[in-house]
Amino acid sequence: MSVVGTAATLHTGTTGNFKEEAKREYQIVFQVTVDDKDDGPPTVLQATGLPSTGSTYAMGNETDATAYLYDLSAKRVSGTRLLWHVTAKYKRLSGDDDQDEHTDENGEPQDDPLLWHNQIGVTFQKHTIPVDVAWNLIDIGVPGGAPTGQRPEGRPGPVINSAFTVLDPPLEKEESTMIVRVTKNELTFPQLASGFIDTINSDPFTISKIRYNFFMLFFKNTAKLAGVDGSFQFENNTVFWKNTYELHVNERSFAPAANNAGHPGFEPKGWNEEVLDRGIYGIAVDGLDDGRGGSYTGNPTGAQTGVQRLQSRGGGSVDEPILLNGRGLPATMTDTNTGDPVYLPYRIYQENDFNILGI
Q1: Measured CA distances, 163 to 239, 286, 328, 335 (Å)
Q2: Distance CA 325, CA 342 (A)
Q3: How far is it, in rounded angstroms, from Cα 79 to Cα 278?
Q4: Is 129 helix (H, G, I), strand (E, B) or coil?
Q5: Cα torsion 311, 314, 320, 321: sign
Q6: Minimal CA–CA distance to 103: which of 154, 68, 133?
């Protein structure tokens, strides 16, 4: 049937809990009268005068705009047929609980789940990777400067021995990857995003959550979409999907400019990779260094550039990869005046514009 009159506040049922300032809790009890003993909670909770979902605490002369209604329950008064007590519980949410509030990005209460604010979390995950670049703590090689074969202290490059042979297999190190998870309510599962999984951002984009004092700028190629998890939801008479976007962030830098073929040292390396330029073959063109102190000869003019097994100064073929200069030739101390190794940059993931995802 229906409710008789409006809900009346029972002052004797009001309570408060102030054990922690950040988690204040309140309780208000209302009395509701119905006109049919067969009326139940769905009818009772529609009574005029009861607080609505997302409302804040208000009782008599007091208010607390930071304490939100999170529970509204109805119970028939013992020994009666038409009287009900409705208990409204409020609490000041913080931390993870704060992300469960049914409010929008501006902190305004909303009944529509599609308008509720996003949730965001950040963590780090450790993994082991090869050491590509290291800084030697002492001079390596023959004393007297780079022209005679020395890698000065503090020079970035691969891990080598005193004869400039690259350590293989390389050393390993621990590295931490930032993981950013953004959860948002959407009308459907984002099928478009499935095509973005395991791709990296082609353009800079930002995630700005003013309410959480969270702002992050992702430079080109620094964010990889690791996955999208979705679950079907039904709340407040609304059908929607709760989707979580997981980004793996890598803000590594490229090797210093002197070592890098075409990238400035300040540009983020991100999810791109660099390959140390070395090998046992070199480009064989007349007049170019043959790797043993001489030059190639005998190629016909205009002939297609070929490759040839590099030779040691003793005349035999090299057995171990040697450093190359970024142009397919053996690296010499005169190439860069310091004999710095060269790293060749590669993009190994497909790119997509993450601005389209709207996260």
Answers
A1: 68, 28, 21, 18
A2: 6
A3: 90
A4: strand
A5: negative
A6: 68
Q: Please spell the DSSP secondary structure of 277-297, one letter per residue.
A: -EESEEEE-TTSB-SSSSB--
Both structure tokens of 7: 């809900």
Q: What does the angle CA 50 – CA 56 – CA 57 come to, to the nearest 5 degrees? A: 75
Is 299 exposed, middle or buried (CB count within 10 Å of its CB: 0-12, 13-18, 19+)?
middle
Q: Where are the alpha helices (DSSP H) in 117-275?
A: 191-194
Q: What are residue 68's DSSP bridge partners?
A: 56, 91
**Six-digit token pair at 56?**
């804040």
> Can you spell out the DSSP letters for 51-83?
PPTTPEEEETTEEEEEEEEEEEEEEEPTT-SSE
d(CA 23, CA 17): 8
DSSP string of 12-37, one letter each residue: EEEEEE-SSGGG-EEEEEEEEEES-T
179 residue type, one letter: I
pLDDT tens sequence across 101-148:
688 887 788 889 999 989 899 999 998 988 888 888 988 876 554 444
Rounded Cα distance, 287 and 271, in Å: 38
The b/e string for 6-17 (b: 16+ C-beta within 10 A; e otherwise) is ebeeeeeeeeee
For residue range 162-218, list pLDDT tens digits in order. 877 888 888 999 989 999 999 999 999 998 898 999 999 999 999 988 777 888 999
Q: H or E stretch including 95? A: helix 95-98
